[in-house]
Structure formats: C-alpha cells, structure tokens
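Renewal narrative, Specific Aim 1. Our central claim is that a sequence can be written position by position from structural information alone. The example that follows is taken directly from our test logs and has not been curated for this report. It begins with the structure tokens describing the chain, in the order in which they were read.
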C-alpha cells in the first residue's frame, strides 16, 4: 500500500476516524479484532489508514451501540446493511427486541427511583445508627419493591 493519498479518496488515521465517529482508538482496534470492522491496510510506516467506507461503518457501529444494541445485534444489522436487497424483517425483529429490553430497564429504573425516594423521605436526618437509608441498604427486605416480589439485583 504505497501511496494512500493518491487519487481523490480521503484516508483517515485511526485517531482521525476515532474523533469523527466519537470512538476511542482501543475500541476501534477491538471492533477490528471481533470482525465488526474490516481490518485496514497500513502505510509503509505501519500506520492504519481508513477509507470513507470504514468511517461510515464505524459510525454505523457506534450509533447502533449508542442505541444499546448488543455486539451480536450490531453484527446482524451490518449483515443486513451489506445486502440491501434482502428483506428487513430481521432488522425489525432486532429493533423490537431492543425496545423491549429498554422498556424493561425503564421499568426497573422507575422502581429504583421510587425506592430511593421512599428511603430519602423516611430519613429523619438523625444519627447514622438510626438512618433508614443505611438500614434499607443493609437489609434488602426493607425495600418496598422487595415486599411486593419485584426485587432483582442488577449484579449479574
């Protein structure tokens, strides 16, 4: 890959493509390792050089990740994007599954907010030994959502 700047095509360094897409350099390298980005050519000085197609792909991946899609879902979406003649049913299914997951997380976050609001409201500002917040954090059974069977830990 001798002269990468010849012709009208624009080439990007890994730092430039990272800045343009809002992606950190180690993440770009990782995406290459797992096949979300096609490994690119290098200059005689062994620097990676990305073309416009690679920049567009990285932007696609970055946006899909920002929307919360898993790496496997992104991989499936890329396959569909690479074959525009195919039906988009699979993309619809992937997006619906993601929406369902987001709705579940929102429900969980709503319960957490309610619990935190209740804990704060019960705190009388006295001494730590009588602090309702500390008591509730120490004993999960004191959580309101636990009493109604809705308690789940997010540590998985």
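The sequence written for that structure reads:
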């Amino acid at each position: 890959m001798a002269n990468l700047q010849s012709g009208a095509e624009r080439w990007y360094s890994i730092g430039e493509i990272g800045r343009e897409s809002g992606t950190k350099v180690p993440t770009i390298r990782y995406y290459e390792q797992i096949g979300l980005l096609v490994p690119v050519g290098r200059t005689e000085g062994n620097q990676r050089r990305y073309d416009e197609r690679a920049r567009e792909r990285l932007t696609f991946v970055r946006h899909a990740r920002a929307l919360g899609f898993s790496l496997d879902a992104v991989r499936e979406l890329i396959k569909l994007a690479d074959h525009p003649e195919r039906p988009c049913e699979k993309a619809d299914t992937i997006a619906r599954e993601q929406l369902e997951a987001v709705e579940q997380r929102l429900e969980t976050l709503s319960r957490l907010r309610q619990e935190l609001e209740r804990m704060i409201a019960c705190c009388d500002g006295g001494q730590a030994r009588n602090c309702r917040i500390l008591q509730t954090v120490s004993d999960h059974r004191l959580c309101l959502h636990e009493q109604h069977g809705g308690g789940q830990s997010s540590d998985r």
